[in-house]
């Protein structure tokens, strides 16, 4: 079967997109957007059947603010789904997603990126589960009450905190997936030892190909597979390619600085902002084929049942060449077939592996 035909037939799942950030900013994902990577129209065009919306909070805000922001993001997600007039529906488990797929409805799952909104209260974790949150990324770019981040120089707990251990046990009890993307290597080790359920990385690449603390070592990939979990490959170009990353980070820092100033004074700083943006986008980006290189690497290490895609769309400034937004996802299927993957293997990678964990 041709890639295009196969892709249309398959159930395709993306385990991480940051579209709720855009919902908070007032974007309407029920119309085809010029900006951003994702809306329901482009989702359908890209043959994507289910997407996890990340309820993301930064570690820099106060816990109460984080809780409120998480609630707002969930509410905006429900609003956007309702406004779709049946085009999309919130899914709570694999059966929901399969039923939606059968009737041509797009599924939106909720995942929480950063445990900050649960503060130090397991009952809040439970409440978020009841609202539909099916995985939690334990922290983001800072250490929190649960564990340390891979992004910090100074670690606070050197792994999971005592509260973090309770969180892992409660997530196991609730049947909420534990997401290890963004956490420190020591936190990862503690979770692997403690968790009784499958552990996932919802948007992480391979350190053997691109050396970055956000990426997973081969041992970590093996550990995730040993829990029955899945590594969902991130599309963020600097996580895909070290050479690109070296040139990209300074341009990205400059862009973020310019953006901050521009937001404070849009008239005065517009030229500087546009210039920084142009320079960042002028750098030649890795292609979608490098996403498939990372998929290949995981398959070679642990087999075809432990890998998938977690694009990070709408959470990343740039996307790979050839898959600039969600409507272009078919290229991944085509490239997998090109490399000799069977149709059954493609089916597992593009959706069934992650769906299995939601059964
Ligand atoms: Zn992330």
How is this structure best described in words?
It is a single chain. With 359 residues, the protein is of the alpha/beta class. It folds into two domains: 311 residues, Metal-dependent hydrolases (TIM Barrel); 43 residues. It is 48% helix and 11% strand. It contains 15 helices and nine strands. The strands form two sheets. Strands 1, 2, 3, 4, 5, 6 and 7 form a seven-stranded parallel beta sheet that branches. 50% of the residues are buried. The chain binds zinc ion. Zinc ion binds next to loops.
Summarize the structure.
This protein has 359 residues and is of the alpha/beta class. It has helices at 3-9, 19-24, 40-45, 63-83, 94-102, 122-130, 162-174, 185-194, 218-226, 237-240, 242-264, 266-282, 288-302, 330-338, 343-357, and strands at 13-17, 50-56, 88-90, 106-113, 133-137, 177-179, 199-200, 231-233, 307-309.
Largest sheet: 7 strands, parallel
Q: What proportion of the residues is helical, as a percent range?
A: 40-55%
Find the structural class using helix and strand composition. Answer: alpha/beta
CATH H-level superfamily of the largest domain: Metal-dependent hydrolases
Q: How many domains in all?
A: 2
Number of strands: 9
Question: Runs with pLDDT <50, length 5+?
Answer: none
| CATH C-level class of the largest domain | Alpha Beta
Oligomer: single chain
Radius of gyration: 19 Å
Beta percentage is 5-15%
CATH topology of the largest domain: TIM Barrel
Q: What is the level-2 CATH architecture name of the largest domain?
A: Alpha-Beta Barrel
Mean pLDDT reading: 97
Bound molecules: zinc ion
